[in-house]
Amino acid sequence: MVSNGVSISPDHRGPWINVVTWILLVLMCLAxxxxxxxxxxxxxxxxxxEALIVAATLVTAGCDAAISVQVAAGLGSTIxxxxxxxIAKYQQVSTDAEYIPVLDNLV
Length: 107
Hints:
The protein has helices spanning 14-43, 48-72, 84-97, 100-106. It has 107 residues and is mainly α. Helix 1 (14-43) packs antiparallel against helix 2 (48-72). The model has no long low-confidence stretch (mean pLDDT 84).
């Protein structure tokens, strides 16, 4: 069967970055959901720690979205394979993504 998807090669490893990032995000969301539901079932009340965990999960989802945009702009590829527009887009997203951990520190 022929695939029309993106191929992974030594010069283009971006898809692996996306796969690992999103698998870990799904695991983190499941762990957060299990903790919040368990706390709700046991004491029928949510506390500040659940709010902080949910906020941190949302901030991490933002970081993962930024990583996906970076992959689309060339993260995981050699710089020789990128055009000037891809390099500019990657740099812009990288600069924007640096502000996301600041939100995490506020949480």
